[in-house]
Amino acid sequence: MITPNWLTSHLPKAERLVDSMTIGDVLAHEWVEALLLEQSGGPGRRRELTTRTLFVAFQLMVMDGEFYLKDVPALLDSLSPRSRVRLGLPRTGPTVTERQVGYLFGIINDALRRNFTEDNLRNDERFADFDQLFSAIAIAGAHAASNSSLSISVDGSDIATWGKSHKVHQRVMETGPNGELVPVMVDGHVEYQRVKVSSDPDATWRGSRDVDGKKSHFGYTLTAAVSTRDENGSDVPRAVVAARFRPMNFHDREMGLACIGEVAMRRGQLGDVLVDRGYTNSMDGKDFLSLVRAMGGEPVFDLTVHQVGSRPPVLGAVIIDGRPYSPSLPQRLYKISPPHGKDDGSYKPSPEALRKYQEQIAEREQWALVPHGSRRPNGVQVFMCPAVAGKLTCPLQQPTRGIRRGALPVLNAPTNPQPGTVCTNRYSSFTMDELPLYQRYVYGSAQWKASYNRRGTSVEPYFGALKDAAGSGLSRGRIRVTGIVKTGLLVAFAAAATNERLARAFDARPPVTATRAHRTGRPRVNNLGVYRQKVIDAADSKTVVLTT
């Protein structure tokens, strides 16, 4: 509930957030005012309610967990005279009306939708104005240290619309002789057809037969890139660093790439890009992974069921889970299926099943070709034969620096290897087009899992904080407007409020102190032999004494 004391403490925060929202070098609210002026064709009559004032009111509402437009006039009228003057309102008197709020929000909606119906434009061009404003608002409030790492995690979250979708019966109409619409008659009766109608024309359905097994949903998708600590780096505050908002029928891949591209442009470089299998679910994932690599990112991702296993050989190497292996790899290690929690009805796989799986992965890794140096700018990665690296003992290749301890002998080396293959070359070069599913660590290994698990401490908890009832509480019924622009802008303000709340929580954490060294006590003495002899001697006398 908004009280005078709450307003006094939160109004400065809301103003700082709004004044930190920029598009290029221009404040977001000034950018909107310029867009409105361009759309109207002239200055027209001066509005009493400015875009900045409306944005501050929206930010105050979502910080309190409220999203109702009808409450904006009462909120602004309850401000102190000094605050009202600072926001461009008259010093006293109830001057803000619900009609003014609706009018300004309406013309902002119309201005941002000006290219939505242009069929000759690409999706990113049609939504360009809306995307710029949405992301500028959504990334506000982020902790300054959220950009201290180069890695990001990308994911999407369902956002329900206030509108509803249902089927109704409508008359079938046709054009009459004079050009008017007349109902179609069949056997003297009006013909009807079932059509789907919606109170939110922008929202769409995700059907119940979704390829990822997700439930049907009517509304929108919020796609966000969230700050993530670099591997072996220090922790960073969770915050949205780029965001997109689309109806459900837009592919996640397109929005994910847009967020990654925005981060790459703003930071100038990318680190690891962590995504789930929903972004790489094509057969080879090239339509996403190659574009991420072209932007300078290093993808860290899960594999789908149809991506796990072997692929046709390249340069004689066996390609398994996106990685090249020696052709002498035993057949039993070609397909190692990762465990899933659903196999035993739990949320995650059992520790025992995971341990056995990773032991198999570690066994197979001995036959994996070893990366030699970094990937070149043209996407070529040089690999070393595992026998040359000393991981295996093979009659076809000799190790460069000696055989490693535990190296296995190759028992099925090719008898007539073809020239130019991995069995005749000590070093072989592969392009990322040949290894589109390649990752820095062997898929399924303990190192890969530790790297990929960073996603579970960044983007997923962020969406949880966004929808937490104790915070923004973003759920169906909180936002009671329809349309992608109006719904999306309120979602963006909720994201900014979540950024600000997570930033305060990060600063409030207790400082990390050095771990106190373990005190060394008296050296441990193994008295097991003494006790054992005492028991034997006492057994002969039928008296058990366990003291020395």
Give a structural overview.
The chain has 548 residues and is an alpha+beta fold. Among the domains are: 164 residues, no CATH class; 134 residues, no CATH class. Helix content is 32%, strand content 18%. It contains 15 helices and 22 strands. Helix 3 crosses helix 14. The model has no long low-confidence stretch (mean pLDDT 89).
Helical content (DSSP H or I, runs of 4+): 25-40%
Largest sheet: 6 strands, mixed
* Gyration radius, in Å: 31 Å
Q: Count helical runs.
A: 15
Distance between the termini: 72 Å
Task: Supply database-style keywords.
548 residues; alpha+beta; six-stranded mixed sheet; three-stranded antiparallel sheet; 22 strands
Give a concise summary.
By secondary structure, the protein is an alpha+beta fold. It has 15 helices and 22 strands.
Layout: helices, strands, pairs:
Elements: H1 4-19, E1 22-23, E2 26-27, H2 28-40, H3 51-63, H4 72-77, H5 81-86, H6 98-112, H7 123-126, H8 128-138, E3 151-160, E4 165-171, E5 173-175, E6 181-183, E7 185-186, E8 189-190, E9 192-198, E10 204-206, E11 217-228, E12 240-247, H9 252-267, E13 272-275, H10 286-294, E14 298-301, E15 310-314, E16 317-320, E17 323-325, H11 351-365, E18 370-371, E19 380-384, E20 392-393, E21 408-409, E22 427-431, H12 446-452, H13 459-467, H14 484-507, H15 528-540
Parallel strand pairs: 3-13, 13-14, 20-21
Antiparallel strand pairs: 1-2, 3-11, 4-9, 5-6, 7-8, 10-11, 11-12, 15-16, 16-17, 18-19, 19-22
Helix pairs in contact: 1-3, 2-6, 3-14, 8-14, 9-10
